Amino acid sequence: MMTGTGALAGIRLLEIDAIGPVPLAAMLLADMGAEIIRIARPPSAAAGDWDDVGGDILHRSRAVTYLDLKQDADREQLLALVERADGLIEGYRPGVMERLGVGPDVCLARNPRFVFGRMTGWGQSGPLAMRAGHDINYLSITGALHAMGDRRGTPPVPLNLVGDYGGGAMFLIFGLLSALLAAQRTGQGQVVDACITDGVASLMSLFYAWQPKGLWEDAPGSNLLDGAAPFYRCYECADGRHVAVGCLEPKFFAQMVGGLGLSDRRYVQNDRDGWPAMQTDFAAAFKTKSRDEWAALFAMSDACVTPVLSMEEAPRHAHNEERGTFVGRHGIVQPAPAPRLSLDAAAIGEPSVATVEELIAAWS
């Protein structure tokens, strides 16, 4: 049984095995020192379409025990852990935990201070609550997917960073920790309804604030931060690789233009009528050197020009190496714990397997 030594040391949580946001949330909490027991189905009872959910990294820093919650004895073992834990996170569709006999009412009856964290795509209520969905579907009904991509093209298929992990895992953690603080103050637990569509909508707050002021056009590829601005987008270089340009501020824009050798053009940065010609000029200039040549040229400037690195390259970048942004563990390169606290350092712990009896003894 692992005991945490970080900022969340002493917090005891149960994680009902899931895919998507739940394991990432549990990993981040465990990296910060929370003691987490992952409740997984016995291998003989496990079923599903996912052979690998990233467990080599996402299951780090916590213990696992195997329970079949369809069995009375295993349910009772889970509830024995509930009595000793501070909270739980799960990612089933609404009503599944209740049908298994371990829903919020049952858990709170056994432990009134218990925080029951629920992670779904559509939420615990609403006409879509019982429907299947994935990251791209959740983005699509919040306005986020429409806001991405090229003005003339089909919306992109993004990585599941914005939905599952941004609107999901991060809001689950935020809600869980908020409820745990409240439980410490009041002695009363509660249910956290973490919904990806709610979270993504919240992440879109800036753009919903800008739109009625005329600062954001409700069309992809038309705005300052969606690729329309020639000074906030990516460009292909002579070797077919790319650089990312993000010089929003005038003084940074001037450094970028100077680095490209275009200072004589006298661009008016925010004159949208001039953006097409500006983009053409920038694209032609970037095609004259390789990605790494441009990266070296701009490395010590504030021009906000950086190389677009592959996953293979990123851990070897000098900045990432010096900060230890990636670490090697058992032959696997993986992101180091984040964020960094000045007093309570986060750490990666070894995963382990334990019986419920061992876990109960450790938490008694």
Please provide a written account of the structure.
It is a single chain. The chain is of the alpha/beta class and 364 residues long. The protein has helices at 21-31, 55-58, 72-82, 96-99, 104-110, 135-140, 144-147, 161-186, 196-203, 205-210, 250-259, 275-286, 291-298, 318-323, 356-363; strands at 12-16, 35-40, 63-66, 87-90, 115-120, 190-195, 232-236, 242-246, 305-307, 326-329, 332-335, 352-353. It has a seven-stranded parallel β-sheet with strand order 6-5-4-1-2-3-12, with helices on both faces. The protein has a three-stranded antiparallel β-sheet with strand order 7-8-9, with helices on one face. A two-stranded antiparallel ribbon has the order 10-11. It is elongated and about 75 Å long. It starts with 11 loop residues before the first strand and ends with a helix.
Helix/strand layout:
Blueprint (H helix, E strand, L loop, with lengths): L11 E5 L4 H11 L3 E6 L14 H4 L4 E4 L5 H11 L4 E4 L5 H4 L4 H7 L4 E6 L14 H6 L3 H4 L13 H26 L3 E6 H8 L1 H6 L21 E5 L5 E5 L3 H10 L15 H12 L4 H8 L6 E3 L10 H6 L2 E4 L2 E4 L16 E2 L2 H8 L1
Parallel strand pairs: 1-2, 1-4, 2-3, 3-12, 4-5, 5-6
Antiparallel strand pairs: 7-8, 8-9, 10-11
